[in-house]
Specification:
The chain has 474 residues and is an alpha+beta fold. The protein has 23 helices and twelve strands.
């Protein structure tokens, strides 16, 4: 693949330099009332199937295996490559939750915040602009004129999901189909904890606020600010952001898709090495795009905070796979992290060849494309139960979310067909390399890090507990 021309890069650098100075309110141009008025999806979500009581929520979402709707959503965009039986199982988990009636949504707000939405907000749109597996989103204006998005959880959905999580037979069957030698019990226990956390909007608010604080003033990454006084365990109010949806961006020019992909790539891995954290839901619906590489990141319900020793293990694997290639050291790091059960019959080269596939796009110093073929091949590789390495492979509990992130990220970037020299971008993010900026976005980000003191070694000023887990934060 040919690199971008010098003229193209020069033009992009000039434009990005201009865009880099626009932060904060630039992500949502126009007045708050103009933003509020653009609720174009209201008509799409009107439905006679509205849920009108908590009993209906439990019955409807329970019958659809509410906890496993997330897996169905993943299957819908991870797409090809799964074993037919695994795909058949996952396809049964896909479902769309109907929205709540305005009265039921208002009752949740009253029970959580103590007053009707019309009393708490200057303007409240009773029709949701988005409905998902756990809750739905309404637009509103605060009393002081801020446009906000208010996520309201379905009443009773916690009971429906926890019931599914307590009865994990379906998930265990799917997991064992994919990985015959997996410690499925530990894996499901970790998934239960992570998915269960998505029900707690207080935790999500803390996660989102942490990301927003870390990325404050960033030239391309935007995280909506939380409005804590209008948030609770089942209601989350944050800054309203408008932008282009993922499906729209697929038709944007190649340069724009390249920039968007680079920002997402930097956000995912910059978070790991900068905060010891992954936002665990790289779903196409969790981004809003603004052009010029600017992206707003939404939904922080599933966030995995890593211990420093876990990040160090991941870094050790990357070094042995990519920057300091060593098959024996790579295998040792993989076994130490718990991704592979020791088996002397497996040669180091066979183990290294299997795991090195996941680093394919950053091994060579050249421009490559995240293609749908590569994403599908990676999925097939991951679920290839006939591979001798897979038969001994494991997904250790601390890294369960990591696999979801990797596969989801590859699918998202493959949909964009983003091109770039990912090796050079990665070397900027890897702290043991700390390479100079290789792109205009990299130059803008480096300037932001110098200005803010944000480091790519695990920022201790943002670590809220020894385990880097915000659940203990106030």
């Amino acid at each position: 693949m040919t690199a971008l021309t010098a003229t193209g890069r020069s033009g992009r650098a000039l434009e990005l330099a201009r865009l880099g100075s626009r932060v904060g309110g630039a992500y949502a141009a126009g007045s708050a009332r103009q933003l509020f008025a653009s609720a174009e999806r209201r008509g799409e979500l009107r439905s006679d199937r509205r849920l009108r009581s908590s009993e209906e929520v439990v019955e409807t979402l329970g019958s659809m295996k509410g906890a496993f709707m997330k897996l169905g959503q993943m299957a819908s965009y991870l797409d090809a490559g799964l074993d037919p039986e695994v795909r058949r199982q996952l396809s049964q988990l896909q479902a769309d939750a109907p929205p709540m009636s305005p009265e039921l949504a208002a009752s949740v707000v009253v029970s959580e915040l103590g007053a009707l939405p019309e009393e708490l907000f200057d303007t409240w749109d009773p029709e949701p602009v988005a409905a998902a597996s756990i809750g739905q989103v309404h637009r509103a204006l605060t009393r002081d004129g801020r446009a906000v998005a208010v996520k309201v959880q379905y009443p009773g959905v916690d009971a429906a999901i926890r019931s599914d999580l307590d009865n994990s037979a379906t998930l265990l069957r799917v997991v064992r189909l994919a990985f015959p030698g997996l410690d499925a019990g530990s894996l499901v226990a970790e998934l239960r904890d992570r998915i269960g956390e998505e029900l707690d909007y207080c935790l999500e608010a803390r996660n989102q606020a942490m990301f927003a604080r870390y990325y404050e003033g960033h030239p391309f990454v935007h995280v909506p600010t939380v409005v804590p006084e209008l948030s609770s365990r089942r209601v989350l109010t944050s800054e309203l952001v408008v932008g282009s949806r993922y499906e729209e961006v697929l038709d944007w020019p190649q340069d724009e898709r390249d920039l968007a992909g680079e920002t997402i790539f930097r956000f995912v891995f910059g978070g790991l090495y900068g905060m010891n954290v992954f936002n665990g839901d790289p779903h196409p619906g969790n981004y809003l795009f603004h052009g010029g590489g600017r992206v707003s990141f939404l939904d922080f319900g599933l966030v995995k905070w890593f211990r420093q020793q876990d990040v160090d293990l991941l870094a050790r694997m990357v070094r042995a796979a990519v920057t300091e290639p060593d098959d024996h050291e790579l295998r040792a790091a993989i076994e130490r992290a718990g991704f592979l059960r020791p088996d002397p019959s497996l040669p180091d080269r066979q183990v290294a060849d299997y795991f090195r596939h996941y680093y394919a796009l950053v091994i060579e110093d050249r421009e490559v494309e995240f293609s749908p073929d590569y994403a599908s091949e990676t999925l097939r590789h991951f679920f290839d139960a006939g591979n001798p390495v897979v038969k001994r492979a494991n997904v250790p509990p601390p890294f369960v979310v990591l696999q979801r992130i990797n596969l989801g990220l590859y699918a998202v970037l493959a949909g964009l067909r983003s091109r770039g020299n990912w090796r050079r971008v990665a070397e900027e993010v890897w702290p043991w390399v700390a390479a100079p900026p290789s792109t205009p976005i990299g130059e803008a980000e480096a300037a932001w890090r110098r200005r803010t003191g944000r480091r790519l070694v695990g920022d201790p000023t943002l670590r809220v507990a020894p385990t880097a887990d915000p659940r203990g934060a106030g």
